[in-house]
Amino acid sequence: MNRSTPRLEIFADRIRDNARAIVTQCAKHGVQVAAVTKVLHAHPVLLQALEDTGITMLADSRLQNLRQIAECGTSLPTMLLRAPGRHDIDDTVQLADISLNSSLTTMTALSEAAVRAGTRHGVIVMVDVGDLREGVWPDHLVDVVSSAAALPGIDVKGVGTNLACYGGVQPSVENMTRLVQLRDMARAATGLELGLISGGNSANLPLMMSGAMPSEINNLRIGEAIILGRNTLDRSPWPQTRQDTVEVVAEIIELERKPSIPLGRTGEDAFGQHVTFTDRGIRLRAICNLGRQDVNPSDLAPVDPGNIVLGASSDHLIVDMTDSSESVEIGTEVRFWPTYAGLLATATSSAVWKAAATPHRL
After folding, report:
1. Nearest-angstrom CA–CA distance, 332 and 215
2. Tell me, what's the pLDDT at 362?
């Protein structure tokens, strides 16, 4: 296993435990879990961690990630979370059992591709109940479902929605009840079962656990709560999960004592920002081989609480190591907990190695 830096270390056992805990919690409320793999780029270590956890589906927004899932081999159905572009239709039918859609034009293309391939493709018709991301506006749903139901090669499995992403609208009794009512209207108009109601993502878990989410909601698409153990409404730890599931590891390539404030007249930095500095006197400053090209420095929290992330340029992460709990030198590895955004960035960066955590870190 390559141990070059910078790298992302994945603690598979901890993620597996998180998945099992959340699957158990959801099962008590009649909810099945589609595990979302995108934040770790569907890495094989993650896929192995999710095996035998009770999840019923693997979901991702990128076709290249679904291809990787297919290459790793799985008996679980797969879901494409982002509606495909026109050049991705054939790959969608090949790689995804179900896709989330709101455009009849796209569903027509999927139907034609499924017929050509001699197969059937499942769709969940997305409804916008307020977050203003994807989804049919509610008063169009019946017409869209009715038209989609007539397409050959397409199975309309149900309806879904997404919240707490673009608009930050939180799942509530009101918007979840509205989703169920809309499903019932489409069911009555078309005669379709529409048995799957995908109510949202990790942000739905608090409502579910409170017992207030309508019992008809029977599927959630869970990513961050499994992988990072976080309540996505406020980033607090989610019950019965661990948060120490991934670490970003960088290496010190320079270590010098320097002033806390730049010398000379200052203006915009390389990213067009005016940076403010706090005068802490002369400090031991490390430069690590990680930069904004890989991750926003504000999305990294040092594992060692004595360290302070000061900022970054494209390729250099600057860390105050004065109060580090361990002795450091050139070549010392420095570890960080990433936020969801930080994990998404480092997992996507081709310059960051990805690996299972080393045994001594377990």
Report:
1. 52
2. 53
